[in-house]
Amino acid sequence: MPGHETRVHGHCDARFAAVRTAFEENFGDRGELGAAVTVLVDGVTVVDLWGGWADPGRTRPWERDTPVNVWSTTKGPVALCAHILADRGLLDLDAPVAAYWPEFAAAGKERVLVRHLLSHRAGLAGLREPHSFAQLCDWELTTQRLAAMEPWWEPGTVSGYHALTYGFLVGEVVRRVSGLLPGAFLEREVTGPLGIDFTVGLPEKRWGRAAELTHAPAPGRAEAFAQLPPVARAALANPGVGAAQANSPEWRSADISAANGHGTARAVAALYGIFAGRGTVDGHHILSRAAAERVREGQGSCRDLVLGTGLDREMEIGLGLWLSGPHGSYGPNPRAFGHDGAGGSCGLADPEAGVSLGYVMNRMGPRIADDPRKMALVEAVYGVL
Asked: Which residues are designated catalytic?
């Protein structure tokens, strides 16, 4: 659909007109179907735009409050849960996971630390035994299997992207400490008090206004997966999940905390803004300055064992989010940080610039990170700043 046929709604400060232009070009030049982008600078909303269609049949316009599954952009809010507990002195990131989850000590994992879970260094990027979609939706079964399994590599030595297991691992620690699954904890401590339109899973009453995900054509995708090393196949395809699963009642009803967060761009920008020093409840910051700084504590640059072939470069993950680094994934500040979702979505935090950004969409591109639509928006923001 040509860009001039897609009407863009919302607000954009005149200074940030280049962001609106990039957003419109995503529809005209980069195959966008429906999407939204929000940018906050020092807590002030300078961009809040949406447009396109909430469904592949183009029968429902994307509205101001259209929620959509954001895949791994969910990992930032789930990491936030752990950092809130650590900030309160209830969770020690340098303690063994087994101190909170005793069953986890099986198969030689006694010395795996909480920080290894947060930084994708636990060696549990994917289950070794076949794991179905229905089993993935079963929290107890999935966490039991992860607790019992032997790591793929020596924990703590290198990262291997825990695409689906991340939420169960970090989330089970959150549950053992707080008594709540991560989705419920996030709602009680953050999204409820701050009025942020973001949930892990999606309440049934909101299904009717949610955007439907669809895949852009990606020739050779199956063949590419078949050529991945075993640990990468386990991480990315055991089980394989895509748009069809994400649109299903089973997915929306589950707590798959690594990948099934649903929200608006406004909500993503607000949540990642907490990492940039924003977000208070009763006059107190959700995260102290020291805790927010700890989130981007780099754990060492390396060729990720799961993403290394696709990204073809070294990367560095902090304690829950990816660092922008020399490649500028989250802007020119190498210490800016954020998280991408499979197919395009993104949350970004840059404390030095006072910036947070949320971008959500429903037509999934073929990349796990640095989708061209997201990068065009990030580059437009920093072109102004």
From this structure: 72
